[in-house]
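Hey, weird one. I pasted the Fe-S cluster assembly protein SufD sequence into the form twice and got a warning about non-standard characters only the second time. First submission, copied straight from the form history:
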Amino acid sequence: MATTQLAKHLTLEPPSITEEDIRRYSEEIGEPEWLTRFRLDSYAHFKRLEVEPSPLFYKYVDLSGVNIRNAEYLRYRDKLSTPVGFGELDDAMFIAHAQGNIVRVPDELAQSGVIVETMDEAVKKHPDLLKQVWERKSVTPDYDKFAAFTNALFDTGVFIYVPKNVEVKMPLRLVFLATGKSDATVSHNLMYVAEHSSVNIIEEEYSIGEGENSVAAFIADVQAAPGSKVTYSVFQGYSNNVSVFSNRRASVDRDASVNWTFTHLGGNYVRSKLDNLMVGSGGSSDDIEVTFGNAKQRFDLSSNIVFISNNSTGAVYSKAALKDYSKGLMKGMIKIREKAKASRGFLSYHALLLSRDAMADAIPTLEIDTNDVKATHSAAVEQLDQEQMFYLMSKGLDEDTAKQLVVLAFFEKAVERIPSPTLRTRIRSMIVSKWLGVPLQEAFKQEDLFEWALSYRGGEMQFTDIFAGHYKYRKTV
């Protein structure tokens, strides 16, 4: 019985798409033969690969209720001037929704050589450049079952190219909208940031109304050349009828930096996988993730740091607060290869349970093939502190407001590490909005007491070496 139930939770019926459907779509939108072959190879991998390749995590996988079969895939997206019902997104540079794609690139950005194009337009306008960047992709078909799924069936997404020595000062805002009508958002985002350039990407995911089950699948493949700087923020605020699958990977070259910020709030089932590949000496990566679940939401979050070259630093700070019947799995690995001496890696996974029926697991792992490195992890799952609740309620707060404040304070250790005050305020606003039942795309801005506290303490937080106080690396006289 247990084996049957486990097999059921690991089973995922494939989409009703054939190889001929994929070939026909690819040819009709004018893709080159090499890209058609790539799609077909990816679909073969999708059908062959397991949902969870590691036996260690079989028991945590629960795909019950997830349906990817009946969604509408490989749609022909027209170019539109405005998205239906979302005029407030006029400053977004790229918008993808059921009716089409929208791309708006300011003249000054285009004149600096920056390319922001839909994938189908990039194939036509920049075929050689796109192929050159594509061949360096790290989110390959054999990487993950849902990476193969997205590689095969993407019908939207953006190609971003930042030339050498260009600082993109305005954030590149990418917005993805699900209609809630059994549609599928399958997006492939490919970015190359050349030497000594910088870019700030903000990706937002929302729903337009409630409806039948929808599917959202994402690839973000980031290539950070030597000396470049990439900041990538994801705000996931889908309604609870959307199943979300994402695979994001960054190749961090010599002296480059890639900083990720994730806010996981929506979706009925969320599977997020992030890898930072430290391929060049002196590179750095940061991953800050905030997850807030309620009702029967399920989150499967994975964040890995792979050190390939020497003298690089990578850190993960992941926090999840879960209420009602929601479940969360936070797992990740620091992998230090033989030539990656003087590497420094840190994993931190903390979960807060707000109800008796909420569940969380935090599983950090280390795999180290050399010496002269620093690697450590921290993991904890805790329940709501009743003493904190008593203290706050004794000051006149009602129980719901007291819980809200405890949750915000719990997240703050991760949120305060984000360099941008605007992003910090937005994350807090989205958490409060979800708590109050306000649509996340309408997250209101209120007086931010946490920002006031940071300024009162002297402005931006100054963080010490993450290894300085750890018992394994503490210096003794």
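That's the output from the first submission. The warning seems to come from a hidden character in my clipboard, not from the data itself. The two ends are 59 Å apart (CA to CA).
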